[in-house]
Amino acid sequence: MSDHHDHDHDHGHKPAPMVDEVSHFEILEMAVRELAIEKGLFTAEDHRTWVEYVHTLGPTPAARLVAKAWLDPEYKKLCEADGVEASKAVGVNWGTSPPTQFGTPSDYCNLRVLVDTPTVKHVVVCSLCSCYPRPILGQSPEWYRTPNYRRRLVRWPRQVLTEFGLQLPSEVTIRVADSNQKTRYIVMPVRPEGTEGWTEDQLTEIVTRDCLIGVAVPKPGITTNVKLPVRKAIHPVHHDH
Amino acid sequence: MSKPHYDREHHAKIASGIGDPQCFRGKAGEAKFKEGERVRIRDLPDIFYTRTMLYTRGAVGTVTKLVYESPAAEDEAFGNEDHPEWFYSVVFMQKDLWPEYSDTYANDTLETEFPERYLERA
After folding, report:
1. Topology adopted by domain B10-121
2. What architecture does CATH give domain A61-213?
3. What is the per-residue pLDDT for A98?
4. Is the complex ipTM higher than 0.90?
5. With an 8 Å Cβ cutoff, is A49 touching chain B?
6. Does B51 touch chain A (CB under 8 A)?
């Protein structure tokens, strides 16, 4: 596991890869992108605009949505009934915010907020590939896209959650949400004890990305995600970060 | 033979400012199933593409929600938007998906979505 000097890779620049090697998919992306630009499907300028937009995304709006809902029962009802409408209160308009003005083929405008109770814990996966509510949660962590997580979470959710440090008693029922069609999910965890009288800003800080995927629960004082070990590559490459 | 013409802006034209799946709202007609109904997932043949996971095929679950209207991914993948249909969120007992799932956690569940064509009354 990482030591205390390991700075948080989730903000500002590229997350540390689980396997420190250029993947076939990264090479494929570069090749297809260059061909698309040459063919005139989009310009290098379009691509830059898109990349810049993508880099502005992160989990903060979703964390604020949860904090607001903890403080305002009416807003919580709206979150449950219409996640897309509720997102507007935290500055995310699913219909129009990306540069394309209609989302992307994978960011459908259909957010469902899964509300935990003391006896039901939700956790999200896309067993097909990598569906993730990017407009409100940013880019998915690498482990979310790995076959390991995707194959095992649907079948052995308790074992996988335990690997993340979340061991749930048998009285708590787990509900896995497999994001296979056009709905994207975030989890609204139960507000933890010890946060009585906290402000929206204080509450927002403890709702981490992991809590919003459902592999962790918020705790006072914990504001960072679980660090998973990085496996050493056989043929390592140097990243520019 | 002439070169086929693809309208690459088709999706942008129908979904801009409205959103997808909102742009298909009202186009699927009457829904065949309702909330609370027991349904079995059909094992339809895949023609190159599907988003209906093998582990759900043949399993029986309960409709929790009619979620939206949209062409099925199996059609949309080939640019066919002629037949939008209702989509359903269905919840399964984990025990019904994985026979070896532990009895200690017999109430654990899994929820996921299906286009109408994959459902039949159970």
Report:
1. SH3 type barrels. (2.30.30)
2. Alpha-Beta Complex (3.90)
3. 74
4. yes
5. no
6. yes
